[in-house]
Design a protein that fits this description.
Belongs to the CpoB family. This is Cell division coordinator CpoB. It holds the Pfam family TPR_19. The protein is mainly alpha-helical. The chain has ten helices and two strands; from the N terminus they run H-H-H-E-E-H-H-H-H-H-H-H. A two-stranded antiparallel ribbon has the order 1-2.
C-alpha cells in the first residue's frame, strides 16, 4: 500500500479515536457502549497497522475499513444530534420548572392576601382596642365617612344596618353614638334617645358615654320633656362629674330652672 493511502487511513483512524474520546462518554443515550466503541476503534487501528506492516493493497480491506470508519462517524454525528436534543430538552425542563415555581409563588402570595382580608385586625376606636373583622372596619368607616359629609339621613341606614349585622362588634357603642347623632340631626329624637340609652346600658364606661347622656337630655328638651331632661342632666353630673359633658350639663340645668 502506498504511503499516501496509509497516511490517509492513519488519519481517519486517529480522527475516529479523537472524536469518540470527546463525545462517546458524554452521552448516556449512545448507540453503543464506550467499551464497544473502543474495541471497534482498536480493531480498526490494528487492521491499519497490519496493512502498513504487510504493505498489502487490498481494495476490499480498504473499502471495508472506510465503510467502518464512516459508520462510526455516522454514529458519532447521531450522538451529537441526540445530545443536542437532550440539551434542548433539559433547557426546556429547567424553564418549565422555573415557570412552575414562579406560578406557585404567585398563587401562595395571592392566597396570603386573600386570607389576610378575613383575618381579624387590631383596631382602636374611641380609646378602646379590640379585634375586628376587615368587613366590620370597612362598613363602620364607610358609615362614618357619610356622616362626616353632613349627609346625616343617608348615614342612618348605614349605622342601623351595621348594628344589626355586627351586634357583638367592638364598634357597636361608637356606631350607636353616631347613629343617635344622625337621628338627632334629622329630628328623630325618640330613636336617638333609644340608641344613646343602649350605648349607656351596654358600655357605661365608654369614652362617648358622657356625651351620649348629654345628647339624651338635648333630645328630651326638644321633645319638651323638661322634667326628664333635668333628671338626665343630674344623673350625668353624678356619673361623670369630671367630664366635659358635665360642664355643659350644669349650664343647661341652670337654664331649665
Amino acid at each position: 500500500m502506498s504511503a499516501r493511502i496509509l497516511s490517509r487511513h492513519h488519519a481517519i483512524a486517529a480522527l475516529a479515536v479523537a472524536v469518540f474520546a470527546c463525545w462517546a462518554p458524554a452521552s448516556q443515550a449512545a448507540l453503543f457502549e464506550d467499551d464497544e466503541a473502543r474495541r471497534a476503534i482498536l480493531e480498526l487501528r490494528q487492521r491499519v497497522d497490519a496493512l502498513q506492516q504487510s504493505g498489502q493493497r487490498s481494495g476490499d480491506e480498504t473499502s471495508q475499513l472506510r465503510r467502518s470508519l464512516l459508520d462510526l462517524q455516522t454514529q458519532i454525528e447521531a450522538l451529537r444530534v441526540e445530545q443536542a436534543n437532550l440539551r434542548g430538552q433539559n433547557e426546556q425542563l429547567r424553564k418549565d420548572v422555573s415557570d412552575l415555581q414562579s406560578r406557585q409563588k404567585d398563587i401562595a402570595q395571592g392566597m396570603d392576601e386573600r386570607l389576610r382580608r378575613f383575618e381579624p385586625l387590631k383596631v382602636n376606636v374611641d380609646g378602646r382596642e379590640f379585634q375586628a373583622d376587615p368587613a366590620e372596619k370597612r362598613d363602620f368607616e364607610a358609615a362614618l365617612a357619610v356622616f362626616r359629609t353632613g349627609a346625616f339621613g343617608d348615614s342612618v341606614p348605614l349605622f342601623t344596618n351595621f348594628v344589626r349585622q355586627y351586634p357583638s362588634s367592638g364598634y357597636v357603642p361608637s356606631a350607636r353614638f353616631w347613629l343617635g347623632n344622625a337621628q338627632y340631626a334629622t329630628r328623630d329624637y325618640k330613636e336617638a334617645i333609644n340608641n344613646f340609652r343602649s350605648l349607656l346600658s351596654a358600655a357605661p364606661d365608654h369614652a362617648r358615654a358622657p356625651e351620649a347622656a348629654l345628647s339624651i337630655a338635648n333630645c328630651q328638651i326638644e321633645l319638651k320633656d323638661t322634667r326628664g331632661a333635668r333628671k338626665t342632666l343630674e344623673d350625668l353630673l353624678k356619673a361623670y362629674p369630671q367630664s366635659e359633658a358635665a360642664a355643659a350639663a350644669k349650664e343647661r340645668l341652670s337654664r331649665l330652672k
